[in-house]
Amino acid sequence: MTFNQGYVRIIDQTLREGRQSPGVKFKVNQAVEIAQMLADLPVEQIECGHPAAGPEDMELVQRIVALGLPCPIITHARSCQTDIDAAVHSGAEWVGLFLGINDVSQRTRVVGWSVQEILDRIMDAVTYGRQQGLLVRYTLEDASRTDTGLILKAFTAAVKAGANRICFSDTVGILKPEITSSIVKTLKQTFPNTDLEVHFHNDRGLAIANALAAIDAGANWISTSVNGLGERVGITDLCQLMANLHYDGLRTLTPENQLRELSCRVAAYSRTPVADNQPVMGSYAFTHRSALHARATRRDEMAYNWLNPALVGARTQIAQDQLPEVEQLVTPPAIAQDTSFQMIHWRIGKSYLMLDHSLVSDCRQFCLVQDISRTPRIQSLDQTVRVHQVDSLILLLGREANLNGLKIEVCLDDITQIVESPASVFIPAGIPYRYRVISGRGALIHHINARSWSQSLFDSTVKPSAVQSTMPGILGDRLQTNQMCV
Ligand code: HCA
Ligand code: CU
Questions:
Q1: Which terminus of the chain has a lower count of CB atoms within 10 Å, N or C?
Q2: Is ligand 1 within 6 A of the CB of residue 202?
Q3: Which of 98, 109, 126, 236 has the most ligand 1 atoms within 8 A of CB, as the residue to mutate?
Q4: Contact, 304 vs 317, CB < 8 A?
Q5: Residue nearest to atom 14 of ligand 1 (CA)
Q6: What is the DSSP string of 430-481?
Q7: Using CA atoms, how far apart are residues 213 and 178, in angstroms rounded to an integer?
């Protein structure tokens, strides 16, 4: 089949499915920033929250709706009146209803319901949603483990009741592209005039392959999330999908889409870093190693690249670093040269760069020790707000007995605390922080899971709205920014 540009539409679910990823909890201002970046990209729809789940979700959806973004907001709801009422109350234009019909759903989700009762519920819920003035998507949960006859019955019920879109969900990520292709073709033949969305979990590592197969077979909406976040190992990755669609000539990608900035923000805010060897956004995606590849790459950057790296904010690189011999893993510190350290600490003692990739080649840890031998007289100097892309840790060790004797003030997000040694301060990725020494002597150790200080900080081209809104007293332009996470 051949398709026009614009045929494939993307519904990004970072703010719904992505929030179901283990350990992920976006702050409202972080979610707002992500929604804005998604709208700027643009994607065609943003799925956000489940308002019936509680006041936090309700507030989140209301805040995102209030942004008045150009792409419509869809919110999630079980197929029941209370959830749909909550969706109405959230102000979202669309509601995404979901209900499964297979034996697993009958055993574990809607225990004791017959197939007919489930079909009636689908019709009632879709009808009710439409009556409330919502546009309705109906998702057949666990569709990939559902018999084709039942799939068609469930979608027929939804379409008859007025669903504006149907969604086939591979909830446990079991599909293979050939099977995806065949089921999507059947659905397109049966419901030729209804928009068809597909939602693929990545449990077999096939979410992107299934998305591409579904597009070839005629599905026109793809569920994605940034960096593939979602339940367990997540769903189709937005950046990988966009790069693939560009490659296949189905959607144009340009550096202005700012995919890398989005991916970096979401990696930090979700505290789920992108693996170096992840396709498209991994730092090795355009890095070449063997002498043969390196030589060819020097002659022509595209010799071993599948895509122009600039489109996704990357550069072609030749891998140079590798870990030195074991004897060279022990190294004396360097006096930290970085002007930002000197700015902070010139009055309180020396800063020692204990470890980073300049001291131990290919080391992926950064450690700075500040010897605090004097209490600063000009305390306002240490007020720089920083945001790291990865988790980090400050250890406070005083010079007195039992490591006592050092006192600092730490402001993490919008909470200020006085911390006395011995103590540790854990700084989650994406959380703005600052600190200043109040009194005493000792050592302050800052350890970061990054190759270097500068690479751990956010790119200055992205507006640090999180900091501006959560730390009103501190000027955004003082934010310490630097290279992005490549
Ligand atoms: C869920 C399940 C779901 C729903 C998808 C959808 C799935 O988390 O509740 O409503 O479109 O994978 O089936 O994400
Ligand atoms: Cu899902």
A1: N
A2: no
A3: 98
A4: no
A5: 17
A6: T--EEEEEEEE-EEEEEEESSS-HHHHBPBTTS--HHHHHH-TTS-GGG-B-
A7: 7
Question: What are the backbone angles phi and psi of residue 353, rounded to the nearest 5°?
Answer: -85, 105
Can you tell me whether residue 423 is helix, strand or coil?
A: strand
- The residue count for the chain: 486
Q: Which domains does the chain have, with CATH numbers?
A: 9-270 (3.20.20.70), 287-318 (no CATH), 326-470 (2.60.120.10)
Phi, psi torsion values for 216, nearest 5 degrees: -55, -35
CA of 301 to the centre of ligand 2 (A): 38
Mean pLDDT, the chain, as a whole number?
90
pLDDT tens for each residue of 294-316: 999 999 999 999 999 999 999 99
Report the percentage of the chain scoring pLDDT > 90. Answer: 82
Assess whether 199 carries a catalytic annotation: no
The pTM of the full predicted model, rounded to 2 decimals, is 0.91
User: At residue 7, does pLDDT exceed 80?
Assistant: yes
Peptide bond between residue 422 and the one before it cis (omega within 30 degrees of 0): yes
Ligand 1 atom nearest to CA at 20: 8
List pLDDT tens digits, range 152-175.
Answer: 999 999 999 999 999 999 999 999
pLDDT value, residue 163 = 98
Percent of the chain clearing pLDDT 70 (strictly above)? 90
Pocket test for ligand 1, best of 155, 171, 174, 202 (most atoms within 8 A of CB): 171
Q: Which one-letter amino acid corresponds to residue 268?
A: A
141 CA to middle of ligand 1, Å? 6
Give the number of the atom of ligand 1 that is nearest the alpha carbon of residue 223. 11
Catalytic residue among 199, 293, 357, 447: 293
Q: With b meaning 16 or more CB within 10 Å and e meaning fewer, what string describes 102-113?
A: beebbeebbeeb
Cβ of 173 less than 6 Å from ligand 1? no
Q: Which ligand is nearest to the CA of 229?
A: 2
- Angle at CA 81, nearest 5°, toward 80 and 86? 105
pLDDT one-digit tens code per residue, 374-397: 776 655 455 688 999 999 999 999
Tell me the residue ranges of DSSP E strands in 146-293. Answer: 165-170, 195-200, 221-224, 287-288
User: Cα of 167 to ligand 2 centre, how many Å?
Assistant: 11
Q: What DSSP designation does 337 have?
A: -
Single-letter residue type at 324: P
Number of other residues whose CB lies within 10 A of the CB of residue 335: 10
What is the rounded distance in angstroms from the CA atom of residue 391 to the CA atom of residue 445? 14
For residue 139 and ligand 1, the question of a CB distance below 6 A is answered with yes
